[in-house]
Amino acid sequence: MHPVSVFNLITVLASNANQAEPSTGFKLVAFFDLITFVASMFALIILLKGWKRAFQPKVKYIFLGLLVFTLSYGLLLFIEWSRKTEALDRTEVLDRTEVLEGVEDVIGALVPVWWAFVFYAFLAGIVEEKLRERESEFVELFDNAPIGYHELDPQGRITRVNRTELEMLGYTAEEMLGRPIWEFSADPKRSRDTVTGKLTGDIPPGRIFERTLRRKDGNTVAVLVGIRLLRNKAGHISGIRSTIQNITKRKLAEESLAEERNLLRTLIDNMPDNIYVKDTERRFVVGNIAVARFMGADTPDELLGKTDFDFYPQDLAAKYDADGQKVIKSGQALVSREEPAIDAEGNRRWSSTTKAPLRDSHGKIVGIVGISRDITARKLAELDREKLLQTLAFKNKELESILYVTSHDLRSPLVNIQGFSGELTRCCELIHSALKDKIEAGDMSEEVQTAFNKEVPEALGFILSSAKKMDSLLSGLLRLSRLGQAAIDIERLDMNAMLADVTKNMEFQVKEAGATVESSSLPACLGDSSQVNQIFSNILDNALKYLDDSRPGMIHIYGKIDNDQSIYCVEDNGVGIAPEHQNKIFEVFHRLEPDKKIGEGLGLTIVRRILDRHNGKIWVESELGKGSKFFVSLPSG
């Protein structure tokens, strides 16, 4: 429909209304004019809010025309309503002059166009509001992004920078805007060449690269830079938009990890043990210098990707591979497994090997870690020791047999010596009785009398005394030989009750020595009751025997538990033992004062022999003239 037709339709309707009731027509037209004017003003206000941002120059000229139209239209309305000239009374179209009709046709033609501009203004206002919201969101996102952003002009100067990058470098926006980006680089020349090359197109844009920027305080920041070239409508490069991600912590972590790897590499390469890591297919992924040399490789890298089958005989490689599979499948470590090995020269060796599963951060087994120590020297020493122990056991058994046989067989002639010595003594007494009268009458020579009355009885006394001593020695040797043959019954012993029994049995000797024996609370131990009783009986007898006559004898017995061992101490204030004798007192037949003290010198020897069979120990601490401390160690159980 033509714009004039629309206007004429409105005026005809108004005319019809005017014919019916003149005042009603005028009101309808006036109401339409008022709405048009108000809507026009409201649209102009909305359009003016987006004048600088949203409109192109051509559009602005159109809206300037609309502004003139609106002002003119408002002026005519003002004239018509205020002065009642009916300048715009379009209800009587047929009565207008040609000039007025022309004006009305123009106005009528512009009204639909004007309404189109009004609707456009409303829509533009909505779009403008959305644009402002989006721009605000973009600015907020731009400034608060977790990474830095900046834009450069064709000269490499910063035209835009976000808050994150400012905080990252410690500058304000005023301090960075307008300055070349390379002024903030730790390597300005390199940065300038890169930026210039990208802006001129000489260097193709890379995706991401690492750079080091310098903060305002002088410290450096490691960053990851992403570059996107900006182009104008002609396709020419107009600038650069870059993202800056702070990777300082990551770089520090990488450096720390590199240092740790270097430390670990240095450590394992300088260890004498064979250290390696294998994947789930038992292929080497890490190896140290020691394992490389052992397997005949020049460097650890020569092991990588290979298996034991590439270095060892088939049987050994199959065994090692089976152990690795077991660790991977079970997830359990094999610890200190002693196994044979063959070195690069073909020599047979022994190794103590530990293999443990290697897990990733999720706990999944991804391989095995192994460490193997050469124990060939130890194994050879153990074999030698075993042979020596077997030899010693055989010799000890042989010695025990000799001692037993010797002590047993010597008793027969000794009994004869003792018996015949007694018989000679009785014969001498009979002869002396028969010749008593002649001896008294002096019929015998002086030499015969001396031999008969003195020398013969004295000689017989020596023979009997020596025989008695020999009998005592043979009895001691017999007891010593029987210790290795006697079975031991290990049980838990109440040492308080046992020491009370030992002290009671030796009560006469204690009183005869004028000594006092005190016993503290003693820990229990494991041992054979009769043999442990003999240990403390012998030590207590030894303490009573070597008390100092110049002072009252004091013997104190106490004990404690240390590292699963019950340790007992028999402390006396006797004569003490000189340092040079402290290691000899446990030897067979050794006595400190053989001329003053009776005994065979076997008491402490028997004690040590019993403790050897009980996995125990005995040692002494003594100071000459002050006393001695005998320590006995037995398993505490």
Descriptive overview:
This protein is an alpha+beta fold and 637 residues long. It folds into five domains: 3-139, no CATH class; 145-246, PAS domain (Beta-Lactamase, 2-Layer Sandwich), CATH 3.30.450.20; 253-374, Beta-Lactamase; 380-483; 490-635, Heat Shock Protein 90 (2-Layer Sandwich), CATH 3.30.565.10. It has 18 helices and 17 strands. It has helices spanning 3-20, 22-49, 51-54, 57-83, 98-144, 163-169, 173-176, 188-200, 248-269, 289-294, 314-330, 376-434, 436-441, 446-483, 495-505, 507-513, 529-545, 603-613, and strands spanning 148-152, 158-161, 208-214, 220-231, 237-246, 274-279, 284-287, 334-342, 348-359, 365-374, 490-493, 515-519, 525-528, 553-562, 565-572, 617-623, 627-635. It is elongated and about 200 Å long. The two termini are 119 Å apart. 20% of the residues are buried.
